# Entry
Amino acid sequence: MKQHVVFYLFVLSILVFSCSTQKQAITANEAYQFKALNNGKPDYSDLHYWAAHPYKKDPSDSVPKPLLANYQKDSAVDIFFVYPTTYTDEAKTMGWNALIDDSALNAKTDYSPILFQASVFNAAGRIFAPRYRQAHLSAYYAKTAQDSTDAIAAFELAYQDVKAAFEYYLAHNNAARPIIIASHSQGSTHTKRLLKEFFENKPLYSKLVAAYVIGMPVPTNLYTAIPSCSLPNQTGCVCSWRTYKQGYIPAEITLEVNKAIVTNPLSWNATKTHVDRKDNKGGILLKYNSLVKHVADATISDGVLWTVKPHFFGNIFYTTKNYHIADYNLYYLSIRENAQTRINAYFKK
# Structure
């Protein structure tokens, strides 16, 4: 009888510990959410809340070694860059929105999109890239009505941070400089709205050199006063593309109601829809200091950009048909040169 009592007490202690642990986990998750939504609002007067800023050293200042010899930095133009989703862990440990002060996530952001994407513009001007409480990747793939509601709220919170950062930048840093708007993926989700609110039929439009809104569909009818870029030296316009392996179009794209803007990032010309990879001066892939020449061609087709399988050492192991993550990388040098072309054209006007 005594042995049975001891056994039941042992089982009871395990259950109590399990419930206590679960309660602590729930409490921790609720605390994360509370901090993200209430106490985690970024203060953009503090450089800590900028992933890239001209008043501090950051990865956007990096220049690939093969380009260093001809590197000349200009400060007459500002680039406002909104980075893509880096909050992707399956456990969604911070809830629907990332914490602004999560050091691991910030490091991931700094040494992936800030280094490999924002840096493409560092010869063109001063780069501003705000940290923001980005929505979790799953917000794009809501499966239930509640998930959809939560996802919409998550994107709204993220956008309000981006908007607040842009307003702070305009008030304290812009000083009437011309602006390039650039973004990728979730950053482009927010940038489409930013262009609508601050540039479409607004005085600030006169300061828009160009917008590189990459990795998300930008409907051709989204703006009435901001055209799509049809020439390499056109200004005040929008460039956009989504890159896939030649012959592949995802099912969701075939269901899109509105036609999307597709810019060829090698020709930058609406009438030249195909450019061979031999005319691609170089991409920056996994090794930042290695320029891979002739890495990809570019062909506009049915609302997307196609390329043959990228040519680089080890590409035998690269089996995906979706090159979303490499939208900037495959055309790094071409984007870099085109930004300067548009800036020169802007000042000539």
Observations:
- The longest strand covers residues 208-214.
